[in-house]
Design a protein that fits this description.
The complex is a heterodimer. Chain A is α+β, with helices and mostly antiparallel strands. Chain A is built from four helices and three strands. In chain B, strand 5, helix 8 and strand 6 form a beta-alpha-beta unit. The chains are: A alpha+beta, B alpha/beta.
C-alpha cells in the first residue's frame, strides 16, 4: 500500500469508526462547542483535567469526513499532555495543515492531515476540533 | 425552451464552458449587457447624481432616475416608493431601526421559522430593544399557511415579517392574503422578496405591503445593491436611515434644524451606487425582453423534470421539497456529508466542484429551517434560472450517483 493510501485509510477509519465520540455529555467534564458556519460542521469537545494534565477528551457532533476524523484523532493526540505540550502540538498542527514547517515527531495519526494543505477549502474542517479543544484547555 | 441561447449572453459560460451553474439562489450570473452598461458609466459618463448641473452629471442623474422608474414599473409601484439600499439585509435592518419608535413594550411582531436570518434577526433585535414579543409561525409540510399566520395575530400585533419565497425550501407564501388581512387591522408588513423578485411577477400595488425587499444580485443585476419598496402610506411615519448628504434640502440646514427630503430620497443619504443602479435598469430590460412569466414557467418546468429525475434515485438521495413550486432543489445524498459532496479532499476527488457543478451546501443563513423544519445539520441546494436546462439537471443527477457510490 502506498503511503498516501495508508494515510487515506487511517483518516477513513477514524471517520467511519470515530474514537472517543459520545452521544451525550459526560458528567464532570468541561465543554466547548465549535461551529464551522460555512458548512455546518458542529463539534462539542468535553475535557477532563487532572491538575495540569489532560486526563480525557471526548467529542460529540456532526460534520464532514475531515472534521469527524480530525476530532477523533485529536482526542487521542491530546490525552496525557500538559497544557504547554498541548499548546506546542496545536501550533504545530496548524502549521502543518497550512503548509508551513512543523515538527512531525510530535504526531501520531495526525500526520495524515499533512496533505490537507493541498485542499484549502478543507482547512477549517481539519482544524475546528483542535481549535475548540485548545481553547477549552486554555480556559477561553 | 433552448437555454443555450441565453448562455451566449453571459461571458461566464465562455470563460468556463463546462460550468453547470446551479447556485442562482445565492447569486445569479450577470449578462454582459449589464456589465457593459456599468462599464460605460465608468468609462464615459463618470459623475455624481442629484448634485452637479453640468451635462455629464445631468446625464448620470437621468440614467439613475430612469432606472428607478423602470424598477417601479417592473414591480408595479410608484417610483417615489423605490429606495436603493446596499442589500436585502440592509433594507430590513434599516426598516427595523426606522420604525422602532412605532413599537412599544408589550407589542408583538410575527415572523416564521422559514425566514432567512436577514428577516429574523432584525426583528428579534427590535423586540429585544423595545420589549416587544416575537411570535414565530411554524411550518406545516414545509409550508407557511396563511391561517397559521392569522392565528397568531392579536390586538398587540404591529408587524408581520414573512418571505414571499423562502430561501431553503422554496415555500411560496400567499403574500396578498397576508397583506390584505394585515392592512384591514392596520398591521405593518415586511415581505422578503429576495427569492421571489427574480423569478415571478411581483405586483406591489396588488399585494400592497408596507415594505418589500429585493436582492438585485439575484436577478442578474450587480452585487452591492438592494431595492426596498416603502409604501407611500407609511413613509411619513418613518425616520431616515442615514443622516447627511442628499437626504436633506441643502438650503434648509441650519445650526439646529433641517428639512428632510420626501419619499425615496429621504432614505438615500450619501452618494448612491450609481453604476449598480444603472446596471439594475439594464437587468430589468433583459428580464423584460424574455418575460418574467416565461422565466417562471421555465423554472417550474425544470423543477418538475428534476423532481422526476430525483424520483429515479430516491434510494440514494433525499429531495426535501418536491412539492414546493419554485426553482429550488433542496436535498441530501444518503450517507454523504454535504462538504464531502461539494469539495475534494485526500479522501475523494469525486465532487460537484470537480464536475464543474456550482451549488450551495450548508445551512444557507437559515438555521431555524434546518433545526425545526428539516431536522438536519445541513443540505445541498441546487437552484435554477433562465440559463439552465434539462441537460444541467441530467449532469447533476449523474454526479449525485457517482458521489453516492464513492461514499457507500
Amino acid at each position: 500500500m502506498q503511503f498516501d493510501d495508508l494515510q487515506r485509510q487511517i483518516i477513513m477509519d477514524h471517520y467511519k469508526h470515530p474514537q472517543n465520540r459520545v452521544e451525550d455529555a459526560p458528567s464532570d467534564y468541561k465543554e466547548l462547542r465549535g461551529l464551522n458556519p460555512s458548512c455546518g460542521d458542529d463539534v462539542t469537545i468535553y475535557l477532563l483535567l487532572d491538575g495540569d494534565v489532560v486526563k480525557d477528551l471526548k467529542f460529540k457532533g456532526d460534520g464532514c469526513s475531515i472534521c469527524c476524523a480530525s476530532a477523533s484523532i485529536m482526542t487521542n493526540e491530546f490525552v496525557g499532555l500538559t497544557m504547554d505540550e498541548i499548546e506546542a502540538k496545536f501550533n504545530n498542527f496548524t502549521q502543518m495543515v497550512s503548509g508551513h514547517e512543523f515538527d512531525e515527531e510530535l504526531f501520531e495519526d495526525a500526520i495524515c492531515f499533512n496533505s490537507i494543505k493541498d485542499y484549502p477549502a478543507r482547512f477549517k474542517c481539519a482544524v475546528i476540533s483542535w481549535d475548540t479543544a485548545y481553547k477549552l484547555v486554555k480556559g477561553e | 425552451m433552448n437555454s443555450n441561447q441565453f448562455k451566449n449572453d453571459f461571458s461566464m459560460f465562455k470563460s468556463h464552458p463546462e460550468l453547470i451553474y446551479l447556485d442562482s439562489a445565492a447569486t445569479s450570473l450577470t449578462p454582459d449587457v449589464v456589465v457593459d452598461s456599468m462599464s460605460d458609466y465608468y468609462k464615459n459618463n463618470r459623475s455624481s447624481v442629484h448634485r452637479g448641473i453640468y451635462k455629464l452629471a445631468m446625464e448620470a442623474s437621468s440614467k439613475y432616475e430612469n432606472a428607478r422608474i423602470k424598477t417601479a414599473e417592473f414591480f408595479g409601484c410608484n417610483d417615489s416608493e423605490v429606495i436603493f439600499t446596499k442589500s436585502t439585509t440592509a433594507s430590513i435592518n434599516n426598516v427595523a431601526r426606522s420604525i422602532e419608535h412605532l413599537i412599544s413594550a408589550g407589542d408583538e411582531v410575527i415572523t416564521t421559522e422559514l425566514e432567512h436570518h436577514s428577516n429574523y434577526l432584525p426583528w428579534l433585535e427590535l423586540c429585544n430593544r423595545t420589549g416587544a414579543k416575537l411570535n414565530v409561525v411554524k411550518a406545516t409540510d414545509l409550508k407557511i399557511n396563511t391561517d397559521d399566520v392569522k392565528a397568531l395575530v392579536t390586538d398587540k400585533t404591529k408587524l408581520i415579517a414573512i418571505h414571499h419565497v423562502s430561501n431553503v425550501i422554496g415555500d411560496t407564501v400567499d403574500v396578498k392574503a397576508i397583506c390584505d388581512y394585515a392592512n384591514s387591522l392596520n398591521i405593518m408588513t415586511m415581505i422578503d422578496g429576495a427569492q421571489a423578485a427574480p423569478h415571478l411577477k411581483v405586483g406591489l400595488k396588488e399585494i400592497n405591503p408596507s415594505f418589500y425587499t429585493v436582492s438585485v444580485h439575484k436577478m442578474m443585476g450587480p452585487t452591492g445593491l438592494g431595492v426596498l419598496y416603502i409604501n407611500s402610506n407609511i413613509e411619513a411615519q418613518m425616520k431616515p436611515f442615514d443622516y447627511g448628504g442628499d437626504m436633506v434640502t441643502p438650503s434648509s440646514v441650519d445650526i439646529d434644524s433641517y428639512d428632510v427630503k420626501e419619499a425615496s430620497l429621504k432614505f438615500e443619504g450619501g452618494t448612491p451606487s450609481i453604476a449598480e443602479v444603472i446596471g439594475l435598469g439594464v437587468a430589468i430590460d433583459y428580464i423584460n425582453n424574455i418575460g418574467i412569466d416565461t422565466i417562471h414557467e421555465h423554472e417550474i418546468e425544470l423543477k418538475k423534470y428534476a423532481v422526476k429525475k430525483f424520483a429515479e434515485i430516491k434510494d440514494i438521495a433525499t429531495l426535501y421539497n418536491a412539492n414546493n413550486e419554485s426553482g429550488l432543489l433542496t436535498f441530501n445524498i444518503n450517507n454523504v456529508k454535504v462538504h464531502d459532496a461539494i469539495t475534494e479532499s485526500m479522501l475523494s476527488d469525486v465532487t460537484f466542484d470537480n464536475a464543474h457543478i456550482a451549488l450551495r451546501d450548508g445551512q444557507m443563513c437559515n438555521n431555524l429551517t434546518m433545526k425545526y423544519v428539516l431536522g438536519t445539520q445541513a443540505v445541498l441546494r441546487a437552484s435554477v434560472y433562465i440559463y439552465n436546462d434539462e441537460k444541467d439537471i441530467d449532469i447533476l443527477i449523474e454526479q449525485i450517483k457517482k458521489i453516492y457510490e464513492i461514499w457507500n
